[in-house]
UniProtKB/TrEMBL annotation:
One of its GO terms (biological process) is virion assembly. InterPro entries: Phage_tail_attach_FII. Pfam families: Phage_attach. This is Uncharacterized protein. It comes from the Bacteria.
Amino acid sequence: MNSRPVPVEFRSPDDTVLDGLALSTDHTIRYPASWLPDLAAGQSLRIGGVSYRVRDVRSVGDGSERRALLTRT
């Protein structure tokens, strides 16, 4: 990936989901598909100075948004 900063919604395992009813178990990012159209499994990225490897990328809803599962490296 190039080094341009892109704003994303980042969730780590300590984040609550479902209005506080559960804890997230994965590192994930959500973002508009047009912002990172080429993001794919196996690529590396940095969030807050921490390196992650993309495990999977899936479209959300009508495909205009994507969710990527990450592994901390």
